[in-house]
Amino acid sequence: MMASLALAGRRSPLNDYAHESLFDGLTASKSLDDIRLKGLLHRVYRLMLDHRWRTLEEIKKEVGGSEAGVSARLRDLRKEKFGAMTINKKRLGDGKRGLWVYRLEA
Hints:
alpha+beta, Arc Repressor Mutant, subunit A, two-stranded antiparallel sheet, two-stranded antiparallel ribbon, 3 helices, disordered N terminus
């Protein structure tokens, strides 16, 4: 069970879903995936509360998981059921490398 957290004056969007499955993709299995995915979602959320720009690789290094998993959790944070947060993104440098950085809007 996930503890209730007040982070930077905000209540964690995960608290309302501590006892139900959040992930409803075709391959998602509550018994196999929920604890892992909820944990990663919560770690991504806590990290991004400082509103710093980060690449997927930087986020992955801080919270674990894979870049694909981190990207999916950033998309989750944009969903209504997680508070419809604004996750900004922009190309890094001149944009030719195809590298993006992400930030939770303050």
